[in-house]
Design a protein that fits this description.
Blueprint: H1 4-38, H2 43-53, H3 55-63, H4 68-81, H5 95-107, H6 109-113, H7 117-135
Amino acid sequence: MYNDSDFFAFAGSILFVIVIFSTIAAVITGLIGYAVAASKGRGAAGFWLGFLLSVIGIVIAAILEPSTVERTRRSLAQNQQNPLQTVSSKAPASQHTQQARAAVAEKYPQMFASRDPESVQQIQSLITIAARNLESGLDAFPGN
């Protein structure tokens, strides 16, 4: 009734369907992993984790730390949004730094309110200079 060649042909077609289904599922979970990890600057790693490890890979991609480049980009974006922030936001601002900020804001109000990167960098430099002057016992901007 059935011979061995029919069995192997049937098994081969079933195996082919399983391989195609598994490949499609791996690509889909890889794309989900990419979408999850892309916001952390690790899209390629997220794809391969999802592709190779399926749902577990997606979970791993979700808990990945942001890349160094992404952390730097986020830090720069945050500094552009808030030019009042000092270069080192971890340490509390000294009294001289607070006075320097006030002096810079009073002397350069338009530049102080600007959000473009060049103005933010100039304001931070001016605050640093004014704070050093105040620490030395000088006016924030001597001679002006």
